[in-house]
Design a protein that fits this description.
Structural class: mainly alpha
Order of helices and strands: HHHHHHHH
Pfam families: Rubis-subs-bind
Largest sheet: none
GO molecular function, one term: methyltransferase activity
CATH architecture: Alpha-Beta Complex
Main location: nucleus
Number of domains: 1
Protein name: N-lysine methyltransferase SETD6
Number of helices: 8
CATH superfamily: Rubisco LSMT, substrate-binding domain
Keywords: Methyltransferase, Nucleus, S-adenosyl-L-methionine, Transferase
Amino acid sequence: MVGEEGAFVLGWDEVLTEEELSVTLKVLCMSEEEFKEYKEQDGWEDDSEEEENSTLSNEALSRLKTPCKKLLYDSVLLTLESYGSDLKAEQDLLNNKEAYEKLSRREQQALHVRYGQKRILHQLLELVR
């Protein structure tokens, strides 16, 4: 369901791997009985047309059912814990011109990427809180 990398791709405005996230949340939030019934259907594509045409925009994420929001929230917290520093530390380093200039070009680019990733994850935390 998640793909080879086992990750979802989030953007500022929406989930870019929305089909994978949508199916994953749906399945992980099902009871055992609901899962058995879902699995016994003719196919995984038999979802309603409304679900197929909906996108996982930030607004839609904030309207998810509570179990799905909790699952996403906990997953984001685990992801943030996997980083060696927090968002504030990255922001402080970006704002400290002297310390920033001591970084190699590659380290500066990595800092920008990490900072952007963390900002998106923090935004997601707010949406599913």
